[in-house]
Design goal:
Layout lengths: L2 E5 L12 H8 L7 H14 L11 E4 L11 E4 L2 E5 H11 L3 E8 L2 E8 L11 E5 L2 E7 L4 H4 L4 E2 L9 E4 H9 L6 E3 L10
Length: about 200
């Protein structure tokens, strides 16, 4: 079972205006937390795997697309969030629903679904190697996932990598390709700064 890193296509601009501050400003209206508390938790969210619904009692978010982006993808990657057009959502929901949560979003391009990934893949300790610089940990030299662990996980993150990247198994890769869904590039280089597709 191969692992792939999931990224925006090269030369694409992040299409959706979505960051921790934008989320916190909307969520504070329906949260017991202050905007500062929300910001701290949202910035830690990828590594701590916290549900957005645990921070907020809202039902949907209102977001806009970057006017500089002319891309009209089925799937948009924004950090560790995946934004799906409703057509992509209907295809991928059965495959990814167990690995995170969906939040309805209203955008200037119509209704979509935000997927917050809440699953880590287990790294293979024999094949994953930490990089050291001057005696201090400095990222990873290599990253390999335990094939048995990811077999049934279509999407996942890596704790050792820091939870900042999205990975998928062959099942997700094949489903996206089979349905000609746009907006994703798959890389077999799981940690490189400038990977090749």
């Amino acid at each position: 079972m191969n692992s792939y890193r999931v990224e925006l296509p090269q030369d694409s601009v992040t299409a959706l205006n979505l960051d921790s501050f934008i989320l916190a400003k909307q969520m504070v209206k329906h949260s017991k937390l202050s905007i500062n508390e929300l910001l701290v938790r949202l910035q830690r969210l990828p590594y701590e795997n916290q549900s957005l619904y645990s921070l907020w009692d809202g039902e949907h978010l209102d977001l806009t697309f970057n006017p500089e982006s002319t891309d009209d993808f089925d799937i948009n990657i924004v950090g560790t969030y995946i934004v799906l057009k409703m057509s992509a959502y209907s295809v991928l929901k059965p495959l990814i629903a167990d690995f995170g949560e969906f939040i309805k979003i209203n955008t200037d391009r119509g209704e979509m679904m935000l997927f917050n990934l809440l699953t880590f893949g287990k790294e293979d300790p024999q094949l994953t190697e930490v990089k050291y610089t001057d005696g201090f940990e400095d990222g990873l030299k290599s990253l390999v996932f335990d094939k048995e662990d990811i077999y049934k996980k279509s999407l996942y993150k890596s704790k050792l990598e820091g939870g900042d990247l999205i990975y998928c198994n062959e099942q997700f890769f094949n489903e996206v390709k089979l349905n000609n869904l746009t907006g994703i590039t798959f890389y077999t280089d799981l940690i490189g700064m400038f990977p090749k597709a």
